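so my prof wants the structure for this chain in the tokens format not the other one, which i didnt know existed until like an hour ago. anyway here's the sequence
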Amino acid sequence: MRKVEAIVCSDKLNVLHRAFLEAGIHKMTAMEIKDFGNHKAHTEIYRSDAYTIDSLARVKVEITVPQNKVTTVVSILTAKGQTGKGGEDKIFISSVNDVSRVSSNETTESI
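here's what i got, hopefully its the right format
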């Protein structure tokens, strides 16, 4: 099994979710995160107070799939997750040695 992680723009989450469902991938985890990268900080004013914003609101998507579905997941992420702007984020793929479901003690072979 492989774990695919991607950090994408937060407004792409619904598009990605629908694309994964259409491809038969029904389980994914999404977390709201702040991305501190190479982008420049800027100042915003809220209620007459100035705030320096040095992060971007992003979503981290995690999907664990069998090896034969990794190409499908990556192609969906690259096709549907692009914003057309510079600084697109990366996709990370790592091996998963064991998986166990807490509620039923199922292991990697049966999940």
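also thought this was worth mentioning. The longest helix spans residues 70-80.
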